[in-house]
Amino acid sequence: MKHVSLKNDVTKTVSLDAMSPDFIYEHNEAETGWKYDVKEELGRGGIGKVMVAFDRTIGREIALKELISSGEDNRIPSLDKMRSDEARFLREACVTGQLEHPGIVPVYEIGRKPDENRYYTMRLVHGVTLSQAIKDAGTLEKRLRLLPHFRDICNAIAYSHSRGVIHRDIKPENIMIGEFGETVVLDWGLAKVKGEGDAADSELREELNLLKVENIGMTVNGKAIGTPAYMSPEQARGDIAAIDERSDIYSLGAVLYEILTGLPPFTGKDVQETLENVKSALPVEITVYEPASPPDLCAVVEKTLTKDPASRYQSALEVAKEIENFMSGGKITAYEYSSWEMFRRFVVKNKALSVLAVLLFAVLIFASIAVFRAYRDSVGNERTAHLNLSLGYLEYAEKLLKEGKYSDSEIFAAASLYNSPFNPKSPWSYPNSYLDENIVESREHMLEIQSLLYLSRVYGNNAFKGNFVSVDFDARNVTVSPDASLFAVSGKKKDVKVYSADGTEKFTLNGHKDEVSAVAFSSDGKFIATGSWDNNLILWNASDGAQIKSLPTLAGEIYALSFSPGNEFIAFGGTEKTLWVVKTGDLTLSSAGRFELENTVRGIDWAPDGKKIIVSDSSGKIYLVGREGVEKVFDFHTEPTVSVRFLNDGVHFVSASYDKRFALWNILFDKPLNIFEHWDAFFSLDVSNDGTLAAASTRDGSIKLINLVTRQIDDLRDHVGSVYSVAFLPMGNSLVSVGEDRFIKLWRTDFTKEMQRLRGHTTYIPSLAYSPDERFLASSSWDYTIKLWNISTESAISSFGIEGTVSYSLAFSPDGQFIASGDSDGMLRFWNPLTGKMIFSYPLHSDQISVINFFNRGKNIISSGKDKKVKIFNLSERRVTKILEHENPVNTVAVSADGTLAASAGRNGEINFWSLPEGRLLFGTKGGNGKSVLALAISPDNKTAVSADEDGVINKWDIKSKKIVETFKEKSGAVNAVAFSEDGKMFISAGREVVIRNTADSQKILQFDLQYNAYSVAFERSGEFFVVSDGAVIKRYPVISEMWKLDPAKLLEETQKEAVKKLEGFKLIPF
């Protein structure tokens, strides 16, 4: 047979023509004698294993890779599978061998062993993988030292692209860093030779399609799938034809992302979820994990990781040059530098001028904001450095607030307050003369800090108790024993760690051969059952971790299991699409009940009486299973329903799904009773022992605590990254969670919170009204309902209204006996708020009523309408006694506390002030010539009024002089509502933002954005709380002013203590 050299001419691309098994010259060791002494196994992949071997002929150590023989991995492959694996193995050897580059391992020889198994030999590289090097580095500073290796990787990939070869599986595990500094790209098994078809294409397409069909949870052992966390979106979609050099460039960006953060850009609970994230999600910003990451390197990552291939770098050489420029102090094309950053790059490139650079530093520092390095290096201008640091902390606090990390945000806001020279109590405070001269800037800066401190405080809660334990593996599930004495933690590993209540590791359950995906304690706490991807169910002794019995099942990879209430049975299921029920004492399939389902089993729970089981699957369907089989199918969720739990009554249950919905069900009905929609996927749920609370973990890093009685929801946040599992402790007032950050965290459910949310309406809320005793709140919505709320319990007492009719304004009678509503059909209606029964109605306006108010001790109602009229209605006579005319539709009317003064306003800026009860016009704008006025309020002392329009302009009126004395414009557009506090010292405006001002000088006390638009706002009489509508949610906020006057050092210390974290630079380190 002719010998074919694996070396190729540098002008030619790699060819598959010479890759036929019949055309490869190979040593037949059965004839020539085996010349290798195999020493140890280095590792193995899907089809091959690599070993250290000694070549006796040449006298050197080499790496020998051989095809995994049939049966070696306990699987019996088909003949087609064996042929496919062999072809793929040979492709890898030939492609690698035809690439000659220092960054690509050279292939020495291809042959057959004496047992006829395929092998090839390569240069042995002593060192560590880039993945291990990243883990060993630990800090950003040390990881940045790996950049020269990353540049070498880019150069090696650029070379392979020049030869027409696309790697398709670039990841840190496939890159070796030699002990002498060399960098080598390994594993070309998925490589694609451009312009030529090959088996890898069809394998890749087949496996990607298989994952889509099976939905979630497939293992990829021996598959041609690649690694989802690093693959390009086009590869994740299975668009094989679209994979080209730019796909490898995307993977290079994923590797650089991990160098900067220590984490891959995308993760998920399983392969399918990771693929979905790669296809549609954006990676977490690098600065969230590493705030000190170089912004120009972040720009390189951003450009490589764009979803559109045309927007990425178009060659690996471009990426290599960007990295080289960064290391040498040059410019990166993907980043727009500030003048200060250009100066820093100049210093790096021109070190001889560093003395001059130091002199210029004091000037250029004023252009920098929020740079911790400026604080560290600055000597000559201490106050300026601390101002920059304060601004940096403030900016980061705002970012954390938007991410819902409230305790972290409060620490950074407190640090900003402590470092701000505008704070008179800061150690670096400006002199009073400077503060007086710069009063506007000082007030704005302190208001911004005040608002962030306030929001961090009121949006957060004291639910977080602390970190229970940190694990050293990718934990995905935490399960608590019935007496809370043991915590079992499983994840992406073959064993289960069991911890005592004090956080010490008690024992390890070690017996599975693949990832443990399901864990459950028996109700008496004596046993632990585990299910794994190795298809085995194992029963353990919970007292010492001893294995009692192992059951090889037919359930495929096991995803869910549950003990029956009396522990007589264990129900389990997985990829085999069957629910199995076995006797705990027997634990054999012969004793099993078997119920065929439609898809992979994802969740299982027994009814409290043990007579029924609720089961969910990977399509989203939920099955009610009785002794005779499936009794009912609930088809609501559209993606895998990952968890289901019965409530105590055995009639209701809850479900959580990847489709971002949590549902409460009654087994008698086909549709959910209540639905809560989140903006990201749910991963797990649990229910408290008393059945009143449900906790659901989410991909976005929050735990949703849902009161199943009041339907109110609270956010628990402290994890970094996704929260994979949550479980209640038996006493019910505590729960435990595990997340992507590998922390097991403890939470209290009986926590206090500063802000209340009342949820129940489905769209915007135009009116809010307190009962006279302020125990209740009435609200109306464009969903055509009026609701009465108990404020202390956060629950709706009644809901009523008329379909198709919106109540634009509500008012309680002074005795609290009824509610009046001004409606879209022009009717004035009176309701019993407890029963929702309408008492009587009156056709008050010929068009929509905009606002109504009681006055004259409840004897009269004043109303405004689109029919251009303001009307006074007498309740005892049930008739209109006075009509006040406008030239334009009237949007609002306000009445003074003593009932002697009214103001009405509407379109074109028309506004009129009236004397009551006679209805005499005092003064006005006579038709107006401006923007529509949307809101009015009169101070309790009748001296001041405020009006607000559709452009966000607020006018402050002096009623005695009949003049506008002050005008200011809010930043976020239309102001829809205004109100004075009971004592008149404050007034509030609401639209897209909420602003509270001092009435005397109009200075802002508080300012913050809402999520949606507000159309109604009201102070409580004490002035200590206010309510505002935010979209379909009512929010009750405390009034906390002048937080910036607190001792900043003490505040910073207290916030860190409460969060169990310490601020070091721009990082929070857990205590």
Describe this structure in words.
The strands form 18 sheets. The chain has a six-stranded mixed β-sheet with strand order 1-5-6-4-3-2. Strands 12-39-38-37 form a four-stranded antiparallel β-sheet, with no helix packed on it. Helices cover 21% and strands 36% of the residues. It is an alpha+beta fold. It is globular and about 120 Å long.
Keywords:
Phosphorylase Kinase, domain 1, Transferase(Phosphotransferase), domain 1, 69 strands, 6 domains, globular, 1071 residues
Set down the secondary structure blueprint.
Elements: E1 27-28, H1 29-32, E2 36-44, E3 48-55, E4 60-67, H2 79-97, E5 107-112, E6 118-123, E7 127-129, H3 130-137, H4 140-143, H5 147-162, E8 165-166, E9 175-178, E10 183-185, E11 192-193, H6 199-214, H7 233-236, H8 245-261, H9 271-280, H10 286-289, H11 295-304, H12 316-328, H13 339-349, H14 354-364, H15 372-377, H16 382-402, H17 406-419, H18 432-437, H19 439-459, E12 464-470, E13 475-480, E14 486-491, E15 495-500, E16 505-510, E17 516-521, E18 527-532, E19 536-541, E20 547-552, E21 558-563, E22 569-574, E23 578-583, E24 593-596, E25 601-606, E26 613-617, E27 622-626, E28 629-634, E29 641-646, E30 652-657, E31 661-666, E32 674-677, E33 682-687, E34 693-698, E35 702-707, E36 713-717, E37 723-728, E38 734-739, E39 743-748, E40 756-759, E41 767-770, E42 776-780, E43 786-790, E44 795-800, E45 807-812, E46 819-823, E47 827-831, E48 838-843, E49 849-855, E50 860-865, E51 869-874, E52 879-885, E53 890-895, E54 901-906, E55 911-915, E56 920-924, E57 933-938, E58 944-949, E59 953-958, E60 963-969, E61 975-980, ...
Parallel strand pairs: 1-5
Antiparallel strand pairs: 2-3, 3-4, 4-6, 5-6, 7-9, 8-11, 9-10, 12-39, 13-14, 14-15, 15-16, 17-18, 18-19, 19-20, 21-22, 22-23, 23-24, 25-26, 26-27, 27-28, 29-30, 30-31, 31-32, 33-34, 34-35, 35-36, 37-38, 38-39, 40-67, 41-42, 42-43, 43-44, 45-46, 46-47, 47-48, 49-50, 50-51, 51-52, 53-54, 54-55, ...
Helix pairs in contact: 5-8, 5-12, 8-11, 11-12, 16-17, 16-19, 17-19, 17-20
